[in-house]
């Protein structure tokens, strides 16, 4: 092991939040870090924070984070002595582990043989059986013929799963509830497995319809010692992807919990496992039984909840074990304290079938006092090349109920702008009665939300407060809102308080804002009103008094394509309220051809930033003719019809009034 004591620089073959997490672990031991990054991640926090950084290719994972040769070249160039794979990408690739060792480097993880054995679900279950670990009834034979698989399916009976031997994350998996569907399920599972993993082998396994996902963290050194660090529950899943994890697993019989933990240690010892690993089980509460699923030969996404309840740094011990150190703990030294919950924060819209969200993060203000493992910050660009998970929020409390309360409070205080996240959905899961009462299971989301989950809708008061936040946001710095152009109407000089109108993107009737910041009122189309005294918008917080009671809420205002969006803190979590000003409504109408058949006019007062055409130019409907700077924004004004430019009435730098003529067209005749 002398050679494994020498490395002082670690290359991290990963990105995002896990790369930053490993960097923290390395810094704690005085080990330098090397970040490898794709062109898309050039300015990412994990790159900036590394001691050394090397670009290894284009944005596509195959060109960078899956490019073994480029990663090993980066290690050689930077003098790294070891490679940490993180999770995902190459972390459970036995060939990569062997290549790292073959290059004379230390692979921070188990040896390639253990990775290969546990990477095959068929071999892994055989090893589990040999170690006396319960497995689900099924067929895991070498005969992969249709006839044999269909014969075994008949014997097993429904419901059962067809699963890819080399699979993970739900890929290459099909549920069969009717034997008539078995041939198609086998064919499609094989095809997906071949495409995703390069291995078409499948196996059959009994399906437990209301099971929970429970896993045990193990830690083994190179001297034969294996410890368990307790268990976790990861039963809240969508398409076999975990959403929320907690430690310890709640509502388990003590004897069964002890047996699960002992079985995990037994399996790890039987294969000579070293480093951090996770033995995953399916727990069937109806039968009071558990079954081996798989062993993950890497650091898990959910490792922070184990760290929270044990106080043991898993990344630090991965590094120590890779250097040949023996575990300094005995099993009796591992103590469990309280309850921890982790929430995966992803750039996606759960209300629209979890549609991925991309763009630039304009605000990133996480709550204080809780752990956040994050791969992004304000200004980060979220692209489409990688997994949508951006961060993990981890809370720790004396008991489960307290951890749930902390998690909800943390979500409610998380201010984000620019890119939509799944925080409201995660809040709905945490506060659901099924989760609180342990009725949740791995396929239970349709039961929790029978009609599908919908985004919380702000009530009348919240909508009024959002309009007030926009109202104050658009006020000129150091001046009165009533002294500016745009939606603001200068009526105070006439002895009347100012008034302005805003529209939600789904309503034709306006929200009326009247008064002054000393006492501002919002009147909604349905007649409901809210009055706020001493109202201010400072940074991203709206404060004031309602009925004499002070309040302070997150209220982040940002510009969307053709409207404003206010991220407002409400009793249902952060809600996004989309609003338009009078000028926005004019712009929308102009975009729909509202300027007339032959004349483009200014939808609002502003300054001409660009004129993109000249007399005689031929234009198509929608071509940008003029760019107008108004309300601190550049607005592209499109051609209302196709035709020839005949007259231009403005030049860059001109200030124009609302409805002023800008460009005249000679429309093309329709045939």
From TrEMBL:
Q: Where is the Biotin carboxylation domain?
A: 6-450
Keywords linked to the UniProt accession: ATP-binding, Biotin, Ligase, Nucleotide-binding
Q: Which residues form the ATP-grasp domain?
A: 125-323
One GO MF term on file is:
ligase activity
Q: Does the keyword Cytoplasm apply?
A: no
> Lipoyl-binding domain: which residues?
589-666
- Specify the superkingdom: Bacteria
Q: Has keyword Disulfide bond?
A: no
Family annotation (PANTHER family): CARBOXYLASE:PYRUVATE/ACETYL-COA/PROPIONYL-COA CARBOXYLASE, METHYLCROTONOYL-COA CARBOXYLASE SUBUNIT ALPHA, MITOCHONDRIAL-RELATED
UniProt name for this protein:
Acetyl/propionyl-CoA carboxylase subunit alpha
Task: Tell me the organism.
Answer: Pontivivens nitratireducens
């Amino acid at each position: 092991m002398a050679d494994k004591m020498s490395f002082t620089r670690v290359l991290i073959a990963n990105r995002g939040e896990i790369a930053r997490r490993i960097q923290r672990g390395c810094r704690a031991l005085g080990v330098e870090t090397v970040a490898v990054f794709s062109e898309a991640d050039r300015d990412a926090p994990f790159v900036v924070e590394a001691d050394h950084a090397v670009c290894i290719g284009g944005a596509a994972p195959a060109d960078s984070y899956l490019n073994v040769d480029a990663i090993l070249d980066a290690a050689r160039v930077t003098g790294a002595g070891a490679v940490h794979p993180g999770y995902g990408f190459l972390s459970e690739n036995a060939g990569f582990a062997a290549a790292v060792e073959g290059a004379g480097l230390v692979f921070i993880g188990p040896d390639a043989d253990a990775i290969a054995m546990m990477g095959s679900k068929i071999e892994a279950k055989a090893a589990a059986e040999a170690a006396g670990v319960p497995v689900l009834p099924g067929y895991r034979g070498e005969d992969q013929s249709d006839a044999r698989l269909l014969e075994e399916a008949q014997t097993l009976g429904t419901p059962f799963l067809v699963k890819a031997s080399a699979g993970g994350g739900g890929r290459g998996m099909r549920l069969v509830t009717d034997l008539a569907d078995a041939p198609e399920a086998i064919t499609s599972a094989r095809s997906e497995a071949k495409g995703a993993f390069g291995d078409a082998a499948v196996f059959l396994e009994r399906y437990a319809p209301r099971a929970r996902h429970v896993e045990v963290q193990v830690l083994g050194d190179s001297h034969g010692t294996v410890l368990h660090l307790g268990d976790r529950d990861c039963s809240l899943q969508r398409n076999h992807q975990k959403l929320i994890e907690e430690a310890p697993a709640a509502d388990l019989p003590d004897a069964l919990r002890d047996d699960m933990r002992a079985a995990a240690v037994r399996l790890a010892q039987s294969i000579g496992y070293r480093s951090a690993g996770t033995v995953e089980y399916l727990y069937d509460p109806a039968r009071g039984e558990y079954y081996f699923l798989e062993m993950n030969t890497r650091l898990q996404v959910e490792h922070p909840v184990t760290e929270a309840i044990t106080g043991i740094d898993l990344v630090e011990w991965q590094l120590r074990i890779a250097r040949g150190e023996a575990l300094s703990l005995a099993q009796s030294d591992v103590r469990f304290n309280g309850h921890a919950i982790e929430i995966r924060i992803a750039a996606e819209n759960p209300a629209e079938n979890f549609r991925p969200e991309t763009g630039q993060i304009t605000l990133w203000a996480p709550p204080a006092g809780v752990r956040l493992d994050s791969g992004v910050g304000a200004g980060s660009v979220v692209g489409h090349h990688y997994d949508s998970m951006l961060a993990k929020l981890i809370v720790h409390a004396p008991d489960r109920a307290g951890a749930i309360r902390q998690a909800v409070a943390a979500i409610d205080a998380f201010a984000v702008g620019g890119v939509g996240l799944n925080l409201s959905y995660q809040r709905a899961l945490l506060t659901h009665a099924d989760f609180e009462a342990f009725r949740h299971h791995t396929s239970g989301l349709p039961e929790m939300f029978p009609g599908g989950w919908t985004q919380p809708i702000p009530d009348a008061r919240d909508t009024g407060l959002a309009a007030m936040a926009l109202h104050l946001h658009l006020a000129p710095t150091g001046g009165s809102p009533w002294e500016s152009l745009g939606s603001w109407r200068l009526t105070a000089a006439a002895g009347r308080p100012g008034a302005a109108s805003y529209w939600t993107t789904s309503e034709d009737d306006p929200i009326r804002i009247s008064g002054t910041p000393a006492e501002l009122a919002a009147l909604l189309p349905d007649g409901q009103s809210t009055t706020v005294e001493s109202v201010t918008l400072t940074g991203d917080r709206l404060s004031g008094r309602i009925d004499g009671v002070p309040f302070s809420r997150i209220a982040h205002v940002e510009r969307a394509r053709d409207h404003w969006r206010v991220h407002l803190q409400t009793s249902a979590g952060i809600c996004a309220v989309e609003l338009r000003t009078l000028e926005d409504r004019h712009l929308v109408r102009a975009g729909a051809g509202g300027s007339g058949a032959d004349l483009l006019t200014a939808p609002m007062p502003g300054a001409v930033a660009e004129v993109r055409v000249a007399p005689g130019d031929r234009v198509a409907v929608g071509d940008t003719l003029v760019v107008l700077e108004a309300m601190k924004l550049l607005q592209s004004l499109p051609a209302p019809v196709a035709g020839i430019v005949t007259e231009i009435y403005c030049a860059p730098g001109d200030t124009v009034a609302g409805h002023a003529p800008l460009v005249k067209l000679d429309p093309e005749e329709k045939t």
